[in-house]
Amino acid sequence: MRMRPTLSWTPTEDLPPGTTDLEPVADALSTGGVLVLSGAGISTESGIPDYRGEGGSLSRHTPMTYQDFTTSAQARRRYWARSHLGWRTFGRARPNAGHRAVAAFARHGLLSGVITQNVDGLHQAAGSEGVVDLHGSLDRVICLSCGTFSPRRELAQRLEEANAGFEPVAAAINPDGDADLTDEQIGDFRVMPCTVCDGILKPDVVFFGETVPPPRVEHCRTLVHEAASLLVLGSSLTVMSGLRFVRQAGQAGKPVLIVNRDPTRGDRHALTRVALPLGTALTTVADRLGIPIDGPAAPRVRS
What we know:
By secondary structure, the protein is of the alpha/beta class. It is elongated and about 55 Å long. The chain contains ten helices and nine strands.
């Protein structure tokens, strides 16, 4: 029997209610040394839905799992057809006020680092540097046979040429870049092999049921160890890949602050959870600290 990854979480204990008081967040940032851990909720204002919030994609969509992708040619066809279409939408997404605020905090020396669970590259597009992409990035593709990395834009061009006229209309786009398409819309979509060895190509992202590379986890643990506090932005912390860093910070006595509208699996480790939209919350904090958030940002380049 196949084990499905943890996709949802229901509180089993009484958790403190969310607040609208941003003073603890402002105080932590003014002190400096804040490590940011962001999730899908920070990108919703850029038009990319999250997984578990109101209207989240898990209500209609089960993300691709590593086991399904590696064992089923049909699953790979379905994934690449949907992801190819979703890639076009991701390329049009732009950083929102939340991403810009994080970049501004870093420019002013208030952050010790940024870890994101997202694969959309919007932190980097907003101007953040040294971002750790915990779950990888849709910008790269890896061959599962020979390990060769290649730019996603090159694969996108090959897929365009092999599937001329593929222009379905998706019902929705999901946080992993996967578009909602029916089997009829997918049809006989052609999947491209590795140009080096004809092996199976996979986006350089961590699928559900797959593990984050241990060196990346250890790097993140070091960042938590060196940080003065941890600021979680837009994550339910349902999966262990992010929750473990909240637990680490809490066990070390470091303040954990969460900005997320809904309760999270890490609330009991947190000093506070601010239940406000991220763009509004972070813009307000930036204003209180006298930090403009509309500084220089990196160009958004996708093809």
